[in-house]
Amino acid sequence: MKQVKITVLKTTLDEELAREYGAEGLTACPILRQGQIFYADYAKPDGLCGEAWKAIYQYVFALAHGAEKELFYYGDWIRTPGVAICSCNDGLRPVIFKLEATDRESVINDNPVR
After folding, report:
1. Distances 64 to 34, 56, 59, 82 between C-alpha atoms, Å
2. Which 3-state string (H, E, C) describes 22-79?
3. Which of 28, 35, 83, 102 could serve as a FRET partner for 4 with CA atoms 20 to 30 Å apart?
4. Between the CA of residue 59 and those of 7, 17, 36, 81, 90, what are the distances in Å?
């Protein structure tokens, strides 16, 4: 299993929807910032929003387990093998991520009970 590089490409705020539905003073994501980098495989990396992880983990899992040589969705989505562009599920202030397969080996830090 390999690690996947997760880069925060952009934090956004849909101002029209935020005016209509958002709480007073709503801003772009206060947790993540453009340019942040995380590495993951099967587990959420420290510092990454849990809701964002739920939205992207299936792509991370696929890339960590060998999908780096293939194009997602038969090549009609992303043109580069081993890359996925995803977002969290916050409809008012989504964060856009770039996921990239790497050659970095995963290290499992679990200590099983015997």
Report:
1. 23, 12, 8, 10
2. CCCCCCCCCCCCCCCEEEECCCCCCCCCHHHHHHHHHHHHHHHCCHHHCCHHHHCCCC
3. 28
4. 13, 27, 18, 12, 18
Whole-model pTM: value is 0.87
CA distance 60 to 37: 14
Is 77's pLDDT higher than 80?
A: no
For the stretch 37-57, pLDDT in tens is 999 988 899 999 999 999 999
Query: Distance between alpha carbon 97 and the CA centroid of its chain, in Å?
Result: 5
